Amino acid sequence: MPSHDLLIIGGGPAGHVAARDAAARGLSVALAERHLLGGTCLNVGCIPTKVLLGATNAVAELKAQQKRRLCSGEISFDLKALMQRKDRLVAGSRQAVEKELAGLGVTLFTGAASFTGPTSALIRTADGDTPVDFRHAILATGTRPADFPGLTADGCRVLDSDALLSLQTVPQSILILGGGAIGLELGEWLSRLGTAIIMVEAADRLAPFEDPEVSAQLKTALSRDGWKIHLGKKAVSLQTVGDIARCELEDGTVLEADLALTALGRRPNTDGIGLEAARIATDGRGFVQIDDHLRASATVYAVGDVNGRALWAHAAMHQARHAVRSILAASSAPYPFPSMPGCIYGTHEVMRVGASARELAAAGRPVSISRSLLAANPLAQAHGASAGLVKCVWDGEQLAGVTAMGWNVSHLVTLAQALITQQTTRNELDSLIFAHPTLDESLEAALMHAPRERFGEA
Amino acid sequence: MPSHDLLIIGGGPAGHVAARDAAARGLSVALAERHLLGGTCLNVGCIPTKVLLGATNAVAELKAQQKRRLCSGEISFDLKALMQRKDRLVAGSRQAVEKELAGLGVTLFTGAASFTGPTSALIRTADGDTPVDFRHAILATGTRPADFPGLTADGCRVLDSDALLSLQTVPQSILILGGGAIGLELGEWLSRLGTAIIMVEAADRLAPFEDPEVSAQLKTALSRDGWKIHLGKKAVSLQTVGDIARCELEDGTVLEADLALTALGRRPNTDGIGLEAARIATDGRGFVQIDDHLRASATVYAVGDVNGRALWAHAAMHQARHAVRSILAASSAPYPFPSMPGCIYGTHEVMRVGASARELAAAGRPVSISRSLLAANPLAQAHGASAGLVKCVWDGEQLAGVTAMGWNVSHLVTLAQALITQQTTRNELDSLIFAHPTLDESLEAALMHAPRERFGEA
Lengths: 458, 458
Prior knowledge:
The structure is a homodimer. By secondary structure, chain A is an alpha/beta fold.
């Protein structure tokens, strides 16, 4: 039976980085991916959505200037060509991953793996079953679109995000169930192609994981762009009826559109991977339980989406690196579970890093807030941006969090994070020269020139 | 005779910031501006060029995707509306400056000031001459477009950048003399409006103050966009002939275009301001000489463009803040003359911060270089960017400089600067989480994942 120092189950960002790091440091590594290397992020997640948004950005920039009557024009997309471009870029990156791992001597299996014991697994490939022994394993099987009874993608007029990313015709209208990152990004893309957007979110605000002010500004901006947004409304049914998608809300309202997207979150890929055999437990939501070392058992680390801690590709990669370091080291430090930066992309972007005001206040910290409006930034003005803000959260005198909504604010995320994690002092901030004019100055304005309000006060 | 703690001559970024800071701290301040508050930056520099580039960015994004045959479309601008929008934005900011300074009790004069002695000046306003006494003065009169014999803007077919920013008709072609930031930005703008660009630069590369690799990549990208670029060519004459602009180069080549722009650098505004009376000297290029405290004399500080040290608005503001602190403090530290971040905007942006490899090598430092290509970054790919790079300069193990060329790289400038000025260690870099996918990852790739080459070796 082939034996490896490390078996990795799942070839998404976490599996890829773990395999690369471990193989580069001399471990014998096997990686089993049942579908496509690159996982959700590369194949049906962050990357293809960014390709679609990047390619259609001209529409957003055009509209912003048309509103100001500075220009006229029209842009029409060849959806087939756009999808081919996306597929080519994705395939190219996938091949690069495969080549890199093969070059490092990683044994790659295309097949589903399941644990048969604490140090053994079976990989089912097209060529038959291969039993594999391992000293350590990293479980990184990720998540897939969640569905709920009555609200399930049917592949006809009701699609999940995986299916929507293979769209062949632009719908006249789409009903998006879920106002989180996935629904927002795909909605922004389709809106640029001319699709009318109807969005339903059960929570009382869009992007419910973000700062409430960000949610509010997002709603204003998207409503101004023509989106019909239903907040605090639960859908009770969603199905294809004839050639349309039909959704009934709790209050009896019926919504119809050419197409519907269910974007109701993600659920972990933990079925059929022999968790019991490896003595791995799941939590109430089905995510793999881990200890503070990212271990799901004595021999298995669980990293990335599958442990449910931070559903971001960069979080997955960060955890993967830690797991490999732990496997290589005699002793290991606990994983710090750092606060993860996050972005939502589109015409109206969202970024956040560090703590939120609510979190800090709940922990009894003395919280204050300072803000700047994007409309006061010359670069944002130049791009016709009228909505948006940058908001800094202070824990006493220490910068603890930054969030923002508006034109290009994803570009502020690493700068904000560096200032927070390096615990930049007021003096250091003073000596940081912000080039003029930059969008970064909107962060400077919130950091340095805005009054601070005690959180919780009006 | 009215007497003030501080007289500021020039109401550009330096004068504005100095007046605000000094007045906010209780000094009695007079500010004389002979033309428009906001100076070059706000009225005929950074801001209007960014408005014009921002408004036309849709064209660049559209072209990048059209090249990949993903869409078709056309955008046509209403130049008059665009100019009005620019003028409105600029006027709004100017009014905000005026209101802020008036609110702080600054005495504002619209008029040219000239020193009549070390602590006295005369301000010539429309209402007559006003003599003013001061304890301290800050000279911040800035610069204006340079001209050279035979190459002077004539206001007819040969314009300087001030005049080009009031253009009323889009020319079919323009001949731009000077391949620095001003020529590049205005060229990018006109190119988006459909103007054919002919650029002549006396140095052997574009953007001669930037890294040579940046210059080379810029030339490749702009040539691909259809620019005709003549490097290492000196113009001997440039004039309006009939209804065209005609330029003769040293080698006898004759270039013709609808319009010409002289963008041959800037020269200081030092005429008629009584430098002798205030015992202020100028250097060989006409810039005001200063000591290491930014002082041009015992009573006068000279900050911003007029001292010729760093012709950036943010440099001017930084110096102004230092001058005010020095005036307020009993003792004063010398000005550190920090390395200034700088950007050139447009479709192909440039950013730089910190030291260049050449500078460090000339100082005998052990220099190495690491690079990433923008074409490997998913966000740059998504926006159709194929050119560009991020280049890190290392002094031993310490990050000493970063420069970049390509799509949106101006957004990397403050992050790079923070990492340099905070002397971020390798460990701190390791713990900095780069969100995926972001353009910031192109900096991460150059910082963390690229091999380092000794500078000077192939």
